[in-house]
Amino acid sequence: MDTTTLLQEIEFLKEKRKAVILAHNYQRDEVQQLADYTGDSFALSEVAASTDAEVIVFCGVHFMAESASILAPGKIVLLPEPNAGCPMADMVTVAELKRKKREYPKAAVVAYINSSAEIKALSNICCTSSNAVAVVNSISEEDTLFVPDQNLAAYISLQTKKRIIPWNGYCITHHHITAEHVKKCRIAHPGAPITVHPECRPEVVALADHVGSTAAIIEFAAKCEADKIIIGTESGTLYKLRKENPNKEFILLSPDLVCPNMKLVTLEKIKTALESLTPRITVPTDISKRASLALERMLAVSQEA
User: Does the predicted TM-score (pTM) go above 0.85?
Assistant: First the structure.
């Protein structure tokens, strides 16, 4: 089936199913182009919580679809590729977190949204890279056990007076970037500002001109007067950057900034999901109730801000 026909089929099925298509900024270009909404984890969480659609097609990875299912009870949530997971989310288990909570009984658990529903259910509150500092500052406890991203934890620790207890986890895509990548880009592209995601290593963050979530990187690029900008986050972000800033040049800090799980979703899989209303992502009721509290607290903090 050619692309034009495939897109027409998807639009027909979307109307038939009363569906909305959400795509993370790290998705393939053609998937972002098709989607009704694109954004980072936080923005898509807000859409999932407020949509009137009967079906949510989440073009992302498993934990994102889980969050959508929790925030939109009663909706059908589809993940076009069920094997699209997140290695960082897998770096913390329920048993390990329970042990750590016993070790730090006075610490509040803040779960990065890049975590499973089971981990969210054991947490006091969730956060995204967009609101992590505000979330940590909103809790009354002085100690914060932050799971699972050690790099985001390190970044937060520089922005708060709270004691941050980091988990030993990381994003395999962002973590491979080193200070040497930054130094080489400085030489190859003198004068070009470098913006990176806080999932990068602390030494990379320290060398960057700007640090922020995917949404913040996109905003920085739009406001920046430079005509060439170095991007230190997943390659899918280039789609929106180039679309919204056609007169600027964007260069990846490393050509390896590609999340293989995010690229598993294709137009064909979206069509198949809408046809069959599978694979559906559901969360057991007891876990969903507890995880929803952590997610709703996160959303409330952002609304207050």
Answer: yes
